[in-house]
Amino acid sequence: MAAKGTSGVLIKMEEESTPQEEFENQSLTDHLRELRSCLIISFSAVFVGFCGAYAVIRPIGSWFFRPLVEVLPQGTSLIFTSYQEGFFFI
Fold first, then answer.
1. Alpha carbon of 66 to those of 58, 70, 76, 77: distances in Å?
2. Predicted local distance difference test score (pLDDT) of residue 49
3. In the chain, where are the structural domains located?
4. Structure pTM?
5. Higher per-residue confidence, 66 vs 3
């Protein structure tokens, strides 16, 4: 698209391209750079989520096991019968 400027010179105006066209015109390194930044953001979000969940695991575990602990006989506690059960609630 061309338009006539104030000095009488034709000025070529750039047409806006759609996101699909921009995506198709990217080089491989541009795609990889975009992928890397998306992966960094995703892994950072997962890490923050794990840290947040780890901060509240004890209150959640206490709330979850409260009905079971209330019906246990006096002086007893919960036990885990297999190795991996201890990792479910720290």
1. 12, 6, 14, 12
2. 95
3. 21-55, 57-90
4. 0.51
5. 66
Strand partners, 2: 12
CA–CA distance, 32 with 34 (Å, rounded to integer):
5
Residue 15 C-beta-side C-alpha neighbours within 13 Å: 5
d(CA 42, CA 36): 10
Dihedral sign for Cα atoms in the order 64, 68, 73, 76: negative
> What is the overall mean pLDDT for the chain?
79
Using the predicted structure, report yes or no on whether residue 35 has a pLDDT greater than 80.
Answer: yes
Distance CA 38, CA 42 (A): 6
